[in-house]
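Memo to structure team: turn this sequence into structure tokens by end of day. - J.P.
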Amino acid sequence: MKLTRRTAIALVAVAMTSLSMSPAFAGTTVQASLWDHGDNSMQMLGSVAPMGMGMMGNMPMAPMGITLDIATAPAGEITFTAKNDSKTIIHEMVLAPVTDVNTQLPYDAANEKVDEDAAGHIGEVAELESGASGSLTLTLKPGTYILYCNIPGHYVLGMWTTFTVTE
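Reply from structure team:
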């Protein structure tokens, strides 16, 4: 059988496509649920201790949160697929690196939001209506990261979680 140049190129293209779809070359996908306890969740704002990272609030009482299906992944390409599981409240998911989980993020109390630039914002899934989904794909180095909702008041009501990227 004679192998023509055209056939060789086609075989290489098929092989490359197969390899790129191989699990060994695939990144990690993390499912994130953005949740709350309904319309009454925001009524807790100001009546409970703030529950942002490094704050003194009682996290089991949090009326909002982000739940991940996995808490760690190896360094490399990671896709966060966020689903707003709320029935009525808009949520978003912002990603930033963390150097110390006991240190508060830079928080603007007047606007009830994290200062994203000062926190080191590296990507986000912007405002999602109830039931909507979105994704964010980044190549991450080893370290600790925080995922949080920065809709006013949501972060201090417990809507954040950490994620670890390993070697």
